[in-house]
Amino acid sequence: MNILQDWPEPIVRVQSLSNSGISKIPDRYVKPPLERPSINPFSVDGNIPIIDLEGLSGEDENFRANILNQVSVACREWGFFQVLKHGVSPQLMDRAREVWREFFHLPMEAKQLYANSPKTYEGYGSRLGVEKGAILDWSDYYFLHYLPCTLKDYNKWPALPVNCREVMDEYGKQVVELCGRLMKVLSINLGLPEDRLQNAFGGENIGACLRVNFYPKCPQPDVALGLSSHSDPGGLTLLLPDDHVTGLQVRKDDNWITVKPASHAFIVNIGDQIQVLSNAIYRSVEHRVTVNPVEERVSLAFFYNPKSDIPIAPIEELVSPTRPALYTPMTFDEYRLFMRMRGPRGKLQVESRKSHK
Ligand code: OGA
Ligand code: NI
């Protein structure tokens, strides 16, 4: 059975809908009342923690311990934080975002060359999930693989803008390096040897992919979402948000907090695979994206994932008689099928994976 052959309905580019100048959005994009951004739960003021990583690799032990502690608190209490002085070149971050803004402003024919299918999701897409009649999100995206090398295929990366491949190659390299450093911090904070979490991800053979999100202007931002509430299915996500338009909201208890991005920061969040590996010491957190009537928004979500064909289960050292394993093993290949079939569904998937003992 291959249910992921093709989309159940003809694809409509949200950007084209937005550009057509409609003042009322099609019913397919209207969320049921309880999911609308204006209603429930409330949006409150505040921000996720901001952590300066300079000094993480330095000599000063106290300074380093302080950074580790800030990350530890952020992982436990938020599952989301921003990092500054993280080692990725600020100019490269700007260039990466600009390259993709340019891509989405190419004529539709140029983008359609990369139209994706639900089989691998690689390329230019406009929906997540293949359920016929589903209510859709107000966004288009581009999805590509960066690692493992066997899945990295330049033919599936845009040829235009001309420097896209080159910029994204270097961007991927620097972001993967940062992810490797963060993995060590998380591992140490879990009381494990620094390489333990990375090894549980499959060591050298991890996966990494990029989803560039494009949120066109929306004439009815009160009833639509750019991306419905979800937790990220993978390991660790590093998000490069738009530099002048907000939209990402993170769930904190019963509220939604709108993230205010710091200049040249990455937004880091814990995905479901780290929730599973850490036996829920760290939890992935629900987030969503609102849309804007006058501004479009671009973001780059880089997903650092475990090797896709190894069983992922709570790390042995984090399992004890008083804290038994909360999850049964599953490969990431198998796990990600849920999102690929059903689209974003809050924390439904990871919660339903609990082992029942
Ligand atoms: C994602 C995501 C947030 C954003 O791509 O998984 O949560 O701000 N993106 O675009
Ligand atoms: Ni996400």
From TrEMBL:
InterPro entries: DIOX_N, IPNS-like_FE2OG_OXY, IPNS-like_sf, Oxoglu/Fe-dep_dioxygenase_dom, Plant_2OG-oxidoreductases. One of its GO terms (molecular function) is jasmonic acid hydrolase. It comes from the Eukaryota. Residues 205-306 form the Fe2OG dioxygenase domain. Keywords: Dioxygenase, Iron, Jasmonic acid signaling pathway, Metal-binding, Oxidoreductase, Plant defense, Vitamin C. GO terms for biological process: defense response; negative regulation of defense response to insect; regulation of defense response to fungus; regulation of jasmonic acid mediated signaling pathway. Its cofactor is L-ascorbate; Fe(2+). This is Fe2OG dioxygenase domain-containing protein. It comes from Erythroxylum novogranatense.
